[in-house]
Amino acid sequence: MRRHGDSYWHLHRAVVRDDENFNHSTIRHWLQESKAPRSVASLEVLARIERRYRLPTGYFKGKLPHQTRSASGHILDDIGSAERRRLAWHLPDDFNTRPRDEQEEILEWVRRVIISGSTDYRRFQAAAMKQRYAIRFPGITYGQSEVANDSSRDRRGGYEDDGASFTDPDLMSGVIDAPPVLAMEMAELIRFKTATLTAFGLQRNGVWGEETASQKVEHLGLMFGALAAHPRGPVRGYGVPPQHLTFGLLIFPSIWDWYVQWRERRRGFYTAWEVDMLRISLALTRKETGWLRQHPHLATRVHPIEGLVSQRDIDRTCVDWDDACDIYFKHAASRVKEIQRVARIHRDPFEPIMPVLEADSPVGEYRKITEEILRLMPDERRYPRYAAEATRSFLMLRFGLHLGLRQKNLRQLMVCERGRLPRSERQLADMKRGELRWSERDNGWEVLIPSVAFKNANSSYFGSKPFRLILPNLGGLYDYIEAYIDRHRRVLLGGATDPGTFFIKTVKTNSKDASYDQTTFYEAWRLTIQRYGIYNPYTGRGAIPGLLPHGPHNVRDVLATHILKQTGSYEQASYAIQDTPDMVAQHYGRFLPQDKAALAARILNQVWEAA
Questions:
Q1: For residue 498, what are the domain limits?
Q2: Domain membership flag for residue 560
Q3: Which InterPro entries does UniProt cross-reference here (predicted)?
Q4: Which site from 74, 108, 197, 293 is most exposed, i.e. has the minimal number of CB atoms within 10 Å?
């Protein structure tokens, strides 16, 4: 303006039309840095100023102190406020001036690719979310164990899921609380499988941890819910009166056959879920150690179910409970083999990150997301909370790439500030959590996690030894860790009680708990990918074309695949994700065949290079 001799009055007259309601004082506020352009109208005026001064497109916008802030003022009259907020971040600044068909194209792309993710499983999940049918056990909770429906958690072909749970209170009408008898039976089962010592007179094989117990409560609740759902409703259940539901039903082959076939009709094919459920039933009816096998009195609670269980079946079961368990065990073992032959993977866990896994350097490709976060980092002096959230997103991804931890271990990681006394290994083992602390011996930030904190604590990988890793001070990682601990965590806490974990939520007026749980941590990671990871051709933001929304577990896929591509070694890949070579070969071998020839050629070609 000085170079062109413009005052803000003169500039206002030059770039704002007479029919536009744009106050000249707005430009004065921009000059004084008391306000920054944010609305669609302001960004349009900013673009006109660029053209007036013959500057490159986006010259001024690139200097905004908060580039990740969504623009306001998009014309989305027929869209609700909640969805409008989600869409705004991903719409171009000139959205309002584009043709109607182009606007529809942009909205469709954003909804399909960024908001929902365009996989077959996501589409099935969206439809299934509208049909709630589970039995809920409110007195039995393990973390995020509130039962939802079959789309809230799906097995990844037998491997671990992120545990993403999408709950909408408006869709909970089909979920009912368990009747007292069924709730009591579930409580007895959980107590049997989780107690430190087995109750006198009972035998068991193996103990369920917290996550396993949560999953079993949920899965069995889904089965009982399907039996109780109305046969003419959207779920098309069997219509068993809830007061007639009992674990005694689970030794009748007809009950299980109806359930697995009902699931097959819903999806269109069998999956590993049905196999897992039948294996639960096998464990419950196994000789000597099965919980159902050791509770013959459950037969007296069974009522006839037309078409499934007759009074004659019940009488025969009451006379010889062991024989009924033997008959069911043989039947279920056969069903497992039959379903395994035809089971398909409904949700390909690698699909959302396929552009990363197919790259020559998967870790290098995924690292682009962290660089995009830094490129768009807000000015901490003017926007401390947004800067804190961006730093947290950056550290989530960096820690994931360096540590290869499961979601639970990453989210529950404690923090010890530099200069303070860290927790002992025994304290951490009692908490079943790890800790980030400063190591004077190695002069670096150390992550120490006792083996008991891991899902596969008994794996040969650990050998009863803790996981210990010194984080590398690469790409300014230590600077961001120390800034996060010293300043950003305090901003995110906002005066709330500090849970002591490294990663904490932004505490707002409607929530005072700063701890992440399974669902909120997944959503935080997914939001980071939506904003910084997925390349948006309409806004130019985002790091990787073709990427889809995903959760923290996928970063383990990135690490394992990267090492396989570089070394061809299942053993070395297993080191990166704290697992065994067999497990890596089983789940990641599909990414190696096309690289085997190249790996062999690289070694052979060294002979010619030496010559």
A1: 366-599
A2: yes
A3: Integrase-like_cat_sf (IPR013762)
A4: 197
Task: Name which of 444, 446, 441, 443 is nearest 428 in CA terms.
Answer: 446
Do both 67 and 148 map to the same domain? Answer: no
Mean pLDDT (whole number) for 42-51: 90
Q: What 8-state DSSP symbol labels residue 158?
A: T
pLDDT(150) > 60:
no
Q: Of 342, 357, 380, which residue sits at a domain end?
A: 342
Give this prediction's pTM: 0.75
Model confidence at 159, pLDDT cuts 50, 70, 90, reads very low
| pLDDT in the model for residue 160 | 37
Chain segment 212-261, per-residue pLDDT in tens: 888 899 899 999 999 999 898 888 899 999 999 999 999 999 999 999 99
Task: Report the domain count for the chain.
Answer: 3
Residue 89 sits in the same domain as residue 132: no
Q: 288 pLDDT exceeds 60? A: yes
Beta bridge partners of 432: none
C-alpha of 579 from chain center: 20
Cα separation, 429 vs 451, whole angstroms: 8
SS3 545: coil
Q: Which two tokens stand for residue 531?
A: 């904003």
Domain membership of residue 609 (yes or no) is no
Other C-beta atoms lying within 10 Å of the C-beta of residue 276: 15
Instruction: Dihedral sign for Cα 205, 210, 211, 213, please.
Output: positive
Encode 321-359 in three state secondary structure: HHHHHHHHHHHHHHHHHHHHHHCCCCCCCCHHHHHHHCC
Residues 253, 371 share a domain: no
